[in-house]
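Entry for phenylalanine complex. Fields follow.
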Amino acid sequence: MRTDTGQIVHLADYRPTDFVLERVDLTFELDPKNTKVEARLIFHRREGAERQAPLVLDGDELTLSSLLLDQVELPAGQYEATPESLTIRDLPAEAPFEICVTNYINPQVNTQLMGLYRTNGVYCTQCEAEGFRRITYFPDRPDVLAPYTVTIIAAKEGNPLLLSNGNFLGGGNYDEGRHFAAWFDPHPKPSYLFALVAGDLGVVEDSFTTMSGRDVALKIYVEHGKEPRAAYAMDALKRSMTWDEERFGREYDLDIFMIVAVSDFNMGAMENKGLNVFNDKFVLADPETASDADYANIERIIAHEYFHNWTGNRITCRDWFQLCLKEGLTVYRDQEFSADMRSRPVKRIADVRHLKSEQFPEDSGPLAHPPRPDTYREINNFYTTTVYEKGAEVTRMIATILGAEDFKKGMDLYFERHDGEAATVEDFVKSFADASGRDLSQFSLWYTEAGTPLVSVSSAYDAGKATFSLTLEQTVAPTPGQPVKQPRHIPLSLALILDNGQIAEPQAVEGGEYRDGVLHLTERNQTFSFSGISSRPVLSINRSFSAPINLDFEQNADDLVQIARHETDMFARFQALTDLALPALIAATKAVQNGEEIQTDAALSTTLIEIIGDDTLEPAFRAQALALPSETDIARELGGNTDPDAIHKARNTTIKAIATTGLETLRRLADSAANAEAYSPDADSAGRRSLRNGALSFLAFAEGTPERAAKAYADATNMTDLAHALSVLTQRFPDSAETKEALAAFETRFADNALVLDKWFSLQAAIPGDGALDRIKTLMKSKHFIATNPNRVRSLVGTLAFSNPTGFHRADGAAYRFLAEQIIAIDKRNPQLAARILTSMRSWRSLEASRAEHAKAALSTIAEAKGLSTDVSDIVGRILK
Ligand code: PHE
Ligand code: ZN
C-alpha cells in the first residue's frame, strides 16, 4: 500500500517524458502467488531531451528480478531499483534500445484490487489510474502511448480463457499442462488501458456489423450459469454501437469487443481497450433479480464504457489533471444516449437531481475542486462527481452555447485533430472555438474554477412600455485555494409565459446576448430588457437546467403553480414543483425544531396530487414529481445547522398530509393493473411501475399499517416491485411481523445471489433511526457478510454513511465513531474503497454544533491513525482543514 508521503503533484510541472516508448511486449506466466512478468520496452530518446537524462520508470510494491539492455544484463552501477521506481543511466543518445524488465508479483494477496488480482478464482487487472506500475516498472502516465503485444501463459486447468486487449494473434500448448495465448493491440494506448483476464468463465456471444461493413465479434464473459443474465447487457452494447455511429459518426475499430463481469471491483466498470472489465452488478440482470434501476444502470454504464473507445481511448488524457476531458465528455455522451433510449425529460430530471444531491454539496464543501484541478495528492480521489457529472454539464453548456450544428462541427474537429493523441481540456475547448468562431475563453473558467454560481434574479414589468426587464447577479463563494472568483459565462435558457399560456417572442432584447431562447449572462451584474411583451409574463428560467447553478429567486406561488401546470419544458415543471415543496419542507423542519405544529401548504398538495393524477402525463415524470426532495436536499437548502431528526420528521409529516389529501388518487394509482403485465425493462413499463410504487410509499404514510406493502410483497412478480415493497416495509414498519417475515423470506430465496443479497443488506442498513448502528453491527456478523467484497461493504457501511441520515447522524455520535473504526480497518485492505466511503463525512461542518463536535472527533481519530494510505490521508486532511 502506498502510505502518505505528503507529496503534491502540480499541473504546472507537467513536461513530456525524455524517452519515447515505441513498443511494448509483455509476457505473463500466471500463478496465483507468484506471477512472472517480463516486459520488453523499446524506447528512443526524445528529440531535444538532455543527453544525460536517465530513464525513470514507475513501480509500486515491486521487486526487480532482472534487467537487460539490448539483451545484455545491466551492471549494478547503471541502475537503481526501489519498490517505487527504476532509474537507468547512460542510455543511448539517439538509437532505439530495448529494456527488458523481469519481476514477480502476487495476485492472491492484492486486496487493493489495483494491478493484477484474483476475484473468485479469476485473474483480472485494474490499471486506471496508476495500477500498471503494480504489475511492472513502466512509464505509467497517460501521455505515453504504444502498441502492445501480450503473451499469457497459464495452467490449462482453471484457465481456459486467456484474454488481453486488441485482436487475438494465436495460442496453443506450452509446457507441463500450461497453454498460452497472444494478443496484439495495434492502437497505441497508455498503460492505464491495459487489461488481462484469465480464468474459467461462461460467455455470451453476438456480432455487430459496423457502418463501414466490418464484422465485430461481441463477447460478454460471466460466471458459468449466469449467461442468461447477460442478455440485456449485450442488447445495450449493440444499441450503444449503433448510436455512436449515428449520433457521433464513431465506428468501432477492432475485430473483437469483450466485456468481463467480475464480482470484486472498486468502481462501476473500466474501459480497457477492447476488453472492458465490469463490476458484475452492472452486467447481470433478469426480472427476478434486477430492478428497473439496475437495468437502467446497466444500459448507461455499458454505453459509457463503450463510448470511451473514442472519448478516452482513441483520444486520451495528456495527464490526470485532464481526467474530465474523457469522463465529463463520456458522461455527457451516455446521458444523451439514455435520453434517446428512454424519456429525455425524465432522464434530465433524474440527472439534475443526482447532480444537486451529490455534486453541489461536494462543490460547496472542503473537497470542492474544479473539473480540471491543478494539484492533487492522490489521483484516485479525483474520480469525483465534479469531474464526471459537472464535467458533463460543462460539455452540455458548450452544446447549448454553440447550438447543435456547431457543437457537432466542434466534436468532429476534435476527433480529427487529436485522434491517437493524449490531449488537454484546452485542446477540446479550442476545437469548439475554432469550429464555431466563438470566443470560449471566459467559458473556460467552468473548467478551472470550483464552486457553484449563485444567480440572483429580480424582474419588473412595465405595461405602458410593454417591456420586461430582468436583472441578474452572479456570485461564487470562495472554495479551497480559490478565494476570488471571476464572473462566468452562464447560458440560461428561458421562457416568458404570457397569460394565454403562450411563450412570448420578444421584439428585441437589450443588455446582452439572447439567441434561440438562451440568455448569455457574462457580467457580474446584468440587466436584460425584453420589448414587445404584451402582458406581465411568468418567468421560467434555467429551463432544462441549461446551467449548473443555484438560483436565488423568490418566485410567487401562483407563478410556480402556473409553470408546474403549463410549461412545455417538463424539467421546468418539475423544478417549479420542487420550488413549491422546498420552502414548505423547510418551514416544517423549523416548526419541528421549535416544537410547533406543522402546517402543510395547500397549494403544494393540490398541485402535486393534480399532476400525479394526470393520465396525460408520462408516468415516470409523475413518479419523479411524487418523490419529494430528499432529506439531504432539505439539509442542503437549509444551508447549515443541520438536525437530521427534525428534517426526517418534517418530511414524513408533510408526506403524510399530502397522502391524506390525495388518498383517492393514490389508491387508484397503487391499484392500477400493472401487476398483470409481463415484465419488460423498457422505460415506459418501468415508469408505470415507479408511479405505482411511489403511490404505495405515500399510502403507507396515510394508512399507517403494513398490510398494503405486505400484500404488494406477496404479489410481486419482479425484483422492482419486490424490493420496493420490502423497502416500504423496512422504512415504515421496521419492527412489524410482516417486515420480519418478508426479510427472512427474501434472505432464503436469494441466499446464493450476491447482488440480491447486497440489496437485502442495504435495505436494512437504510432503516432510519438510532437503531441503525446496532442493526448494521449485527449484519456484519451475518454469514453473508464478506469484508473483502467492495459491493458488500458499500451495501452496509456505505448505505449507513450515505443513505441513512438519521441513522448515521445519531445525536450521540456513535455512528461517526463506528465509521472511523471501519475506515481505518478498510484502509488496510483497500484504500480506494475506504477513501470513497469517508467522503460521506465531507459536510460535517454544516451539522448542528454537538453532532459536528462528535464528527470532528471521529475524523481526528482517523487522521491520527498510523500507516494511513495516501487516499484516506488526503481525504481526511482536506475534510478537517
Ligand atoms: N474510467 C472508469 C470509467 O469512468 C472508472 C474507473 C476509474 C474504474 C478508476 C476503475 C478505476 O468508466
Ligand atoms: Zn468513464
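NOTE: The CA atoms of residues 171 and 181 lie 4 Å apart.
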